[in-house]
# Entry
Amino acid sequence: MSSASRSLNYALAINEGLRQMMESDDSVFLIGQGLKSPWYVGQTCTGLLDVFGEMRVIDTPVSENAITGAAVGASIAGMKAVVVHPRVDFMLYALDPVINQAANWYYMNGGRSSVPVVIWGIINRGGEQAAQHSQAFHSLFAHIPGLKVVMPATPYDAKGLMVAAIRDPDPVVFMDDRWLYGIADYVPEELYEVEIGKAVVRKSGSDITLVTSSYVAYESFEAVKALDEKGPSVEIIDLRTIKPLDEECILNSVAKTGRLLVVDGGWKSFGISAEIAALVSEKAFHDLKAPVQRLALPDVPAPANRHLEDVYYIRRNQITEAIFELSRR
# Structure
């Protein structure tokens, strides 16, 4: 999405952010399943074991609950753990240390102790992996008080939000989508942060506000880029963080355009698209020229057939259709 010169793909941007944080802070360590395997975590962890050794890059057996509990405990004791779940589906085994422990710790201790842990879940869509290997649970974790949830869509944000998540004193769920890993764009070489809780306007427009995040933000940008001069003028907001939500950015845009389309890579019912629609209904109903439109996954599990996957997952042609449909209302 940028024309600047230095380019890295999304996975290598995360890798660089991890490496620079581990170089600058001895308390940062990685723990998780498949850290030695490029097949499990793409290029995100390539070379880190060689540089930092097995005491700081801990490749574990299949034990989601145990490794997450260890990461939360170590973070309470003064370390900064990044716990890696190569398939977010199986992160559900670790809900107790994430929700009952990490999310509540600061509040239950009267603010005297925090949990600076990053809980990293990787979404693996497509490839006929079916329902148990293709799910996106960002709305589930965003529902929990005490958790922050980030979902970067670009290599720049992937590095900057990983750095910000590691430095954050609170537990942060870092959720990315493997479909983004090969996408290359501008990434500065220096260590930098992207502020948690701040959305960004990727493209200005005057007719429709399109709010999105993660991989479908990329599809949305490509869909809008393909519109000709006769098409609606679309303003694209990439949330980058879904908890806390940047309400001001969304409401200011809707006040300008009067129309809102939310594109989400999760299920439609009770998800982030419903949350944003409720936000605008509560605080900007008078600005709307048409009902809010949502584009999200149907309320069924992911199929195990590539032809059905083509229908199930959101692509740019569906986004284009939704834009034109909303513009006619």
Observations:
- The chain has twelve helices and 14 strands.
- The chain has a mean pLDDT of 95.
- The radius of gyration is 19 Å.
